[in-house]
Fold each of these.
Amino acid sequence: MNRTWFTEDHSIFQRSVRRFVEKEVRPNTDTWEEERGVPRDVWHKMGEQGFLCPCIPEAYGGSGVDFGYSVIVQEELARSTCTGISTGVRVHSDIVVPYLVESGTEEQKDMILPGCTTGDIIMAIGMTEPDCGSDLASLRSTARKAGDTYVINGQKTFISNGINCDWIVLAVRTDPDAVPDYKGVSLILIPADAPGFIKGRKLRKMGMHSQDTAELIFEDCRVPSNYLLGQEGRGFHILMQNLQQERLVVCIGAVNIAEKMLEITLEYAKSRTAFGKPVSSFQHNSFKLVEMATEIEMGRTFLESLIEDHMEGKDITRRVSMGKWWLTEMANRVAYQCLQLHGGYGYMEEYLICRLYRDVRVQTIVGGTTEIMKRILTKMMGL
């Protein structure tokens, strides 16, 4: 479909990303899935091509371009089907780095951002805790001021880029007595070599095997007080502001992977025969393919309007919350039907649909569950 924001420069950039994916990502995806990780040199190669954090200002090593360039990187990496690099880069470039760009001091930006564009620095964000998921206001990790340092204690889990991260934006409680609870939440930048910062085990997941997800532990971890991101007590506010873009990039991933699943299923259903006829020629199966194509097309249209509004600086909180739950649920419906149309082969690991079926399941959970999205919307609708 026609994209109002898409220019010839975007097209040139897209072709460049696509060539990189074909050369560096697709041939290695199966290996990285087996090894459960993506080599660091891939990040460096992406940095050399200008594919990491393209939107940040040139003064900090970026290209200073519009969000459309990030959309292109996200889409091409999603279509590669390698979640290790697509999710890792999404978290790094479009979820975590914007916190620093928007709320960091000049000293913090100069220290961290240039390395983010080259792949020398990988970023992560630490919100979820073993006893605290979507209810961020109730997190238990603490940061106590001690002179000119913060002493941090607590544990985080399900942290994307957790093992490989060089810096993490950590959500902590700096005021345990704050009323309401969310006013006691702050964000602090933690380097990987900070004393007391322990990277725990790499988590073994149902899907997304090449994606680095970890437990992180903080035991009297000490960092300078000037690593505070923004102001004390304003962490929850900053998180809520940035969640718009986080949920948008999850929507982008959901639509693109749904399109990919339909593409490979159409190819399979047309070539696979049963009772002497292509699987796709049976009316029930053809109707299922048509239904999926329709839902995906509707999802793509909605997604494009979200991207356009976001690029124009409009508040998309309400609509992106709708998109986050509906588009990710749609992608899971597509995964179910596509695997079913593959029959027994869909259950075999050597068929791509098997891996995509596993990988897509988490999308209704990350960035706020379907149920949390609906709760947000009920409040916005005054219900």
Amino acid sequence: MIRYAVVICSAALLSACGGAVPERQRPLGTPTPIDRPAAATPAPRPTLSAKGLESVMGKDMGTLVRMFGQPRLDVIEVQGRKLQFSGRACILDAYLYPDGKNGAEIVTHVDARRSDGAEVDRAQCVNALMAR
């Protein structure tokens, strides 16, 4: 008799541990009508012109060092490298990635800004850094 009581109590305790299964929840928000007009496409991002950047685009690290001096920052990334050059007029970030031909890292993109973070023309920044 005691044995049956222990089995029944154990079964009751174990069933309490399982918890309740939640009912299926309603989806959040309201359903979207089928005849709803398509959302307007976002405005295209302005493309940055490479005009005036011929002296840096496609160049390797050695060429950049000869042009601008030692970089202020040299950040080695997983697949590329970022070199930062600075002068009184601006800060230039040059991004170098393997070119795919012989694996040499070359400049594929540049950003330019003032020391306060405001954007400046990239070609003018390159010219200012070369003139110093």
Amino acid sequence: MPTQISEHISRDLAELVRLERRAFAAKLRMARALLGWSQSELGFRIGLTQRAIHKLEQGETEPRRTTVRAIEQLWASEGIEFEDLADGGFRTSVCPALFDQPLTVQARRRRTARIQLGVTAIGRHAPAGRG
């Protein structure tokens, strides 16, 4: 019996880690979209490569604690806060001043493309304008 309990706990723990990694990946993509930054720009600001940011955003790798702290500090300095919810989801708060910041030409193009694809500021997808 102890082996079965141990295997069950291990599966539950592995699932919890997977869900936390996916939630962090979603936060990372959402914050980057709000800021209008490329993966390279985010990586430059926290000392990671574009490839490392890509892997984090895909949930492929478990971020180091120092990386998580650096990213969370960056979010706070830019006016983005995430609140983890009991059901495993999260809530986002964005400082209104963030929307007053001028965008670079590339960021403006990316934001326009996201709007055309139906991605909103709260990370949900609006229906694309199909017939």
